[in-house]
Design goal:
4 helices; elongated
Amino acid sequence: MTTISASALKLAVGPAAQADALQARQSSGQQQLSEVAEQFEALFVKSILSSARSAQLADPLLNSGGLKTFNSMLDQEYATALSKRESLGIADALVRQFEHRVSNGDD
């Protein structure tokens, strides 16, 4: 099988196809940026929930490792659901801050 060099491919494909490929990459990059920003916001919300849960005024009756694991997983699910349902604006701010890098193709 013969391989085609990048410069030969550019000449063969033409500028229109190159522009389409660049636009598809930018669109994919924008979508990935939005997903990562939402995940970061969920992580931030989980941190808030975990901090609130750890601020207990008295020792609970059932204080076991299993309960701590369950509460941690529950906080993660709450955080994910909250970040998808209600926005704190963190994800939007991250997208605005980094969208020019995605559109310019910076890594």
